[in-house]
Design a protein that fits this description.
Helix content: 40-55%
Largest sheet: 3 strands, parallel
Radius of gyration: 14 Å
Strand order of the largest sheet: 1-4-5
Number of helices: 7
Order of helices and strands: EHHEHHEHHEHE
Strand content: 5-15%
Length: 126
Amino acid sequence: MLILDSGGLSYLAKRNQDAAATIRVFVRDGLWPPVVPTVVLAESITGRQRNDANVNRLLKTCDIVERLPEALARRAGELRFRARRGSSVDAILVAAAEPAGTILTGDDEDLNALVSHSGPVTVQRV
């Protein structure tokens, strides 16, 4: 499973050759469509059509997860407490990626701290 944080979403929404090549690799490897929790939308959407157009276009190809189950929220809280860093959104992404998922991000520092307390999760920086 591939999960996008706001940095991963922004990167893949760019209409350039690098983003297109990255998407092709994910499709080839069976990691497409990616999962995007709605909490990531709160970090990514500006409400300005011009700014959001490419993100909205990409989101049409993603699996949007609208609900945060209690067990996942509890696991995210546990990870955040153990790591002593990272946002709630970062912790939710790591908990959602367990076990054996990949998170695509533009900033891997906090995510890696959280992953050090999780099951096998990969953080891939773009």
